[in-house]
Amino acid sequence: MGTASSLVSPGEVIEDAYGGGGGEACEIPVEVKPKARLVRSSFRRGPRVIGASFKSTGSVDLECAAELERLRKDYEILRVSKSNEVAAMLKKEAKLDEENKRLRAELQALQKTYQKVLRERESALEAKYQAMERAATFEHDRDKVKRQFKIFRETKEKEIQDLLRAKRELEAKLQQLQAQGVQVYDPADSDSDDNHTRVEAPGAQCEYWSGPVLGSEPSMGSMMQLQQTFRGPEFAHSLIDVEGPFANVSRDDWDSAVASLLQVSPHVSQVLWSNTVRCYLMHTSETQTEVDIFVRSYSARLRKLCEGLGHFYVTASFPAESAGSYVAERRQEIERSSVCVLLLRSSVTSSLVEDAEEAFVKNPEARPLLLYLRGGESVSLSAPARELVERVTAADKAVKVKVIENSGDSEEGASLIHAQLEKVIKQELLGQEMADGESAVSCLAEGEGGEEDDFGDVPWDLHDEQEQAEAFQQAAALPTPTGCQKYMERLNDMVAAPPPIPPLLISGGPGSGKTLLLSKWIEFQQKHSPDTLILYHFVGRPLSNSAEPVLLIKRLTVKLLQHFWSISGLSMDPCKILEEFPRWLERLSARHHGNIIVIIDSIDQIQHAERHMKWLIDPLPVNVRAVVSVNVETCPQAWRLWPTLHLDPLNPKDVKALIAAECQGAQVKLSREQEKKLERHCRSASTCSALYVTVLAKMISESRVLDRTLEQCVQCQDTVSLYRLGLRVIMDTLSTDREKLIMKEVVCLICVSHNGVSESELLELFPDLAWPVLTSLLHRLQRLRIVAFGCGLLKFQHLQAGEAVRLEYMDTETSTSVCRERLIQYFSRQLREDRVTWRVADELPWLFLQQEDKAKLQHSLLNLFVSQNLYKRGHFSELLSYWQYVGRDKGSMAAEYFDSLKQYEKSCEGEDSMTRLANLYETLGRFLKDLGLLSQAVAPLQRSLEIRETALDPDHPSVARSLHQLAGVYVQWRKLGNAEQLYKQALEIGENAYGSEHTSVARELDSLALLYQKQNKYEQADKLRKRALKIRQKAARQKGNMYGFTLLRRRALQLEELTLGKDSADCSRTLNELGVLYYLQNNLDAAKVFLTRSLEMRRRVLGPDHPDCAQSLNNLAALHCERREYERAEELYESALDIRRRALAPDHPSLAYTVKHLAMLYKRRGKLEKAVPLYELALEIREKSFGPKHPSVATALVNLAVLYCQLKHHGEALPLYEQALKIYEDSLGRSHPRVGETLKNLAVLSYEEGDFEKAAELYKRAMEIKEAEPSLVGGKAPSRHSSGGDTFSLRSPALHPNASLQLGNR
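Request: output the structure for the sequence above.
Response:
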């Protein structure tokens, strides 16, 4: 038997016998494996196995109970643990709630603090802006007070100078009377008050204006010298003042002036009448075929050539059978023509002979002439034709008539004429082919007129300048009306009044003659006051370019700056241009030797005149006058307080004289009854204005039925109605309805255009319009003063003429819109054909603006060549105003330009298109730079540089231009190191391409000099600036042979004719003047001949000791100095000095001149001991002339001290320097450049004496003054009070001692 476990199989369950759920456990050892299975089995319900043990069941229950107990304990432990965790979490939650409440409270406190700080910041910003406004107001008030004080000081100085001058004159007269033995009554010896004479200098109130400014006498101490060496002529020989057109101008200064003039105002051939190349074809019916072929096949080519260069082109010809009907028109066409072509075959007509006589025989030098001879085996010239050819050949003494012989057909003849005309236009009229054979690059598709060579100079529109010149010339060419002289005299008196004075106002009704008066007065001032700089501007109709305030002020600024410095630093920002003009005017007026007059005609027609002309309200500099004209009805109220010259209507006597003169010229005789009728009519203010009477006289003289015309005229009570009558009269003279319709449309197109329309545009707008009909119509409109030409464009001669056209033909807005639409279609067609000329850029965007079509306006602006044309001609503000109207800011505008350029770049293939693309990128970069978007300007300029380096060559001159423009951006960006490298690369390319003496090299040198000046590298900047100046002077002389000295040559030829008579003082003066003029032309041999003849004649006529002989000796000495014949020059100077010492007063200007130049010559040759007494004499003269405390005396002290230092007489030099320093500080201020120069010389002297500490202190102060000195464009400008044209630095070599030539008074 075994144990009970042996009876139980593994996995079986033991159950009790009674089927119960389980019995009491027995103490029977039972092995149960595994336990977990047993426990699970003990609870399994099912049939009880028979034969199981009761003991095993009880042990299982015990085991389950233990397990349950253990689980209960684990549960309890778990429950307690979780309860503790829950309690801890509740505590933590409560703690976090408290923390959250605290943080919320802190956040609310911080928010309150933030709001408080924000309010405080806004208050601080508001206070800051208020403080800035107060500071700006204070700055403006301070500047205004400074200007007023400066004017007051200069006025008082001028009064003192006038008194000193009057005193010297009286003393000189007293000495002359005593020398003649005349007893002079001394009022001090009398007890009677009646015997005391009050002495006043004649013209003391006006002398400031008519003579030089304060301290500008031509003496040794002349303050106008401005660091010049007086290499050129001393052009006068008067007691005190130097007069004449070349007063105190050296030849180098003349060269610089010519160079500046050519740079800013490019030369326009005088053969071109009103910016139009006019080709006049004279022909017969035999050569009509050549004319037809030429007009049909070749005129368009010449027109495209001229348009690309900025000019118009017309071919004028009259049919042989009807030429006799256009006598006046043919005569006018010959006067205006640029080139005449005479076409002959066998016979001639009377009209052809008349035209040929006028153009080829009477005035063959006026224009290029072509003679076309159609020959052949069976063709021979008739006797009249042969006689005409002989007369033409005899008149052509200079052999300038170009003969074209053709033995072929008419097609070949027209081709030969075109080839010769194209050559004449390029070479003689427009100067597009240079002497070395290089033709100028012309970008006709771009409308640029050639490669730009200004290298960043301010874009300049030649058309605006030519329009102003023509407006002045047309008005000045009119006959001077009766009564104009009294207004000119009153204007002279008002201008000559002592400063300060506000602008002068010329007022009058419409058509009262304000423009005519100003033109005549400008002409008078140019003739009698050549030292006066006159800046004039004639405003046309409102909304035209001439009425744009920014363009007006920019033009005046450029014309002002061209007389002094380069204009490359002038801002293009419209606001800055208006802001900076009064500052430029104040600064540059102080440097001008004479006086400055600013004249603006019809200033009330300027857009927002009061807002843009605020500078007129501020006090003007002492030597500046402003003269403006206004319509009395539209004059702003604030301007009515200015001194006013009112133009009254014509009196009956003047009306009668004006009408009689016009009728006499037209050979029209008025009856007494008709004269009385006109006299009764012209009595009201509107019917006796100058314009009304002029138009009335024209209509009477042109009338075919006098009584009828007179009756119609007296019904017109104002100028507008009279103009309307004139339009109807011209309309009645036209023969066909088509001609009448054309006339109406022509004047309407002029009325709706921006700046007018040209003849060539009218011929394209009306294809069926014949030239004779057009020129006849325009001739009649001009005769009645309805239209006039300006820069090739037809414009209304007066605002009232435009108003008459508007009332007569354009009474509704629809008709105006229709006319504008016709012009839009015409210019849009040119745009589609890639004919983007300056006319398209001027008219098309403006027409879209008037039509209020923003979409088309934006589309036209995104044509890159339109925007490029506007920008390159300086119409910066106009371009910005268009974009502002479209609603684009600077950033979006730049983005749209970039997108357009990218699209255009995809279509570019070939070198020409890539070159145009590079030009567009460069223009965009410059435009963005001027807008102040420097970061965006770099990308297009760099792209332009990449394209040019790839498409052209890395050493091409265009690459240098890109480098220059990119460097300019870096300069504004203050990245001076990058800019310096780019400038040096551009300089190297320019020297390799053009040579070291080309003007482009000079521009790079100027830019580098300005850059070095910004970096305080003054010595390097000075060297580069001097080298650039020499290059410009040489270029000026070369250009002067063509342009600058043309008037001098003409004057020289006139004077040569006056020297053929017998010996006389006048003839000797003429010889002296000829010598001076030839000297200016650099013809030293001819100058020597005439100066020597003048000296010999003066010795024979006047005696060897006459002051005029000293003048000739002085001029010959100057000439020998120029030729470096110093020994001969010294002898002549010494002879001149000896004569002048004996003949002239001790402080005479001519004596001072000779003393100065002889002293400089001694110093040049190393004869310092001989120079000392002359410098001492110069000091004595200046003390007598100006007083001991004048800056000019300080300059003489410095010159003498420098000489003593070179002689190692340091002890004698030191007190002179100290005395000069004190005078400079007292008279000019402690920060004046003269003070700095003297301190620097004192520092050098102290260093050489061994006082190093004092030298360092003086040098430091000198450098502080130099760094603080304000600089203008191109470097530091000398002060008007700088009297030292001959002041030398201790470390600098002596200046060239070329003396002044003198031009005697007549």
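The chain has 48 helices and 15 strands.
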